[in-house]
Amino acid sequence: MEFQYFLPTKLVFGKATINQIGIYAKQYGTKALVVTGKSSSKRSGALEKIVWSLEKEGVKPEIYDKVLPNPTFEEIENGARFAMEVSADVIIGVGGGSAMDTAKGIAFKMKNEGDLAEYFEGKKAQNAVPIILVPTTSGTGSEGNNIAVMTNPKTNVKKGFRNPSIYPKVSIIDPELMTTMPKRITAFTGMDAFFHALESYISLRCQPFTEMYSLKAMSLIAENLEDAYNNGDDIEKRSCMALASNLAGISIGLSGVSALHAMEHPLSSFFGANHGEGLCPIAVPFLKYIKPHIVKKLASLSTIFKINENLSEDEKAERVIEWISNIIYKLNLPQRLEYFGVNKEDLRILTKHVVEFLTHNLSTTPGNLNYEDIYKIYESAM
Ligand SMILES: [Fe+2]
User: How far apart are the CA of 186 and the centre of ligand 1, in A?
Assistant: First the structure.
């Protein structure tokens, strides 16, 4: 057994902890750039509270609220230009994955010249400007790792960029900010967190810390996602989902995702799918396809999903996949690729994209999947 564990991020978890953000931000300077999207940080009241806390501690806030879903290199470069103009000492990302990953990208770009594409190819990087993250959804877990998912607009390649410089210094996880999350977003971000936990658990790079965090995350999601979806005001349920998302985010930081995420990425970049929604139609065909390679791992989840202990390993694995299929149905999430306007003729392009650009995710997926395998999985998702 061989593994490493490194997480240089202070995690601050709990109700109303957002009010402390100024105390943390002032450790890094006197001017903070708050990076966010158009709506969620305003709807949740996060933005107002952050501005109040920063000003109270003598930190001047500048707002950059131009974040769009699936951030591109160009958008991140524009944000970095703005951050340099206002001489930001610290970058605060508030929102879902797109806002947090844009903040990571901006902080990185401020200290690293040249095209972001070069850094994806392994160009040596300098440090980034200090980053503080505040999730307002419970899905991506970006606050717990050093990954920023970005899209190259020239190639439509959407993938995770990993660099030690973009670990957040502090992440503030305040479940109260999540009570205003609409049902649909609760559903698909919750499933994104679930697949982070599951994919890192079945990954060939899974290690003991991943196992612990992913199992706990899946168990919290199994017990709380439906209730959080049906009763968004329940702060206990929201807290459990926020914790699950954070744990699953740490897991992917340790062990990465798998072919399922790789197969979703072109759905977002070519068809504009919401990431968490895009995962849903592919998940069940994917798991069924690689089941022979992960029977033991799937069967080991039977207690989490309260599956009869007397069944065979194969039957348990089958029931786990059924549970996933059922929760997707109960949360009214898409079950077919048609939902995103994908036609059968598109499948070759999607498959080629995965095999060409996302090999790192395929290499950690059990089953050694090739072009034909990926095509067949997409085909079953139609
Ligand atoms: Fe994800």
Answer: 14
